[in-house]
Amino acid sequence: MCRDPPGTARTNESEEPPVPRMLDVSEDVRAEIGDDEADRLLAGENAPGSYDCTSCRTPGDPEQERTSTVLFVGDETAVLAFAHATCIPSQVVRVSEEQLQGAVRSITGQEPQRPAPAQVPQDTQQAVLGVTSGLVLIDGDLHPALVVEPTAPITRPGSYGTEDEFLPLLVEQGFLPVSSLTLKPSVLTGWSVLLAMGQLHAILQPSAVGTQPVAWWQAHQPLQVTEGWRTAANKSRTVLVFAAPVGSIGQQPREDLLRDALEKAAANGRLVAAAMPLAGTS
Description:
Elements: E1 23-24, H1 27-33, H2 35-43, E2 51-52, E3 59-60, E4 67-73, E5 78-84, E6 91-94, H3 97-107, E7 118-119, E8 128-138, E9 141-150, H4 166-173, E10 176-177, E11 192-196, E12 199-205, E13 214-224, H5 227-236, E14 238-243, H6 255-267, E15 272-280
Parallel strand pairs: 1-4, 4-6, 9-14, 11-15
Antiparallel strand pairs: 2-3, 4-5, 7-8, 8-9, 10-15, 11-12, 12-13, 14-15
């Protein structure tokens, strides 16, 4: 907002003041970027004339519609992005430095490479996971879903046995067994799916210490999702996460085949699931 210095008067009342941007800057974002920078944004000095929404990837105009400031914070750097306020609120999204660089590449139009297999660092031993995204029809509605399947058996931490404990460990975390794909899984409190710049970055779980969630699964590089998947996620703000032991699902080239594999795993008692809200942007 323009202010005159004390004791002075404007000499040209016909001058039009700058058009204020319809920006939302949350307290968390303000704390990260500082009051001066936040005030400059709100005054329109550093705000973009137009932008591509970091959530839905369609154009936005802060002079015509409410716009959220979204700050992506990595280990060493931070990137300020913008989104339609109707898509997501202003917020701070904390990601690894590698994830942040992937987000920057997506902003500049440099597509990241197909992600390498990821690691699952929490509660189960280190294991390579396959994560597949797809749309699953439940009760007449298409739901965005992720299917998690390790490439080898998962044993209990500290155990020297060879028995696959992947599903029991997830049940202990709150996942529920699935007997059929007729009902939507219940929400798993404290867990969430992190998307940024329209790409999948991580599945988050509550931290054993502190308040910030930690990554249960984290992509080495951001995982691309389809436009239909992202649209469904924007609509529901919830992602269904299914998990099955090694060899239960496999790499399915089509969503109908993926559903068939899920139904077979469920019928054989080899499938657990949970619904998780979106964290960050989609």
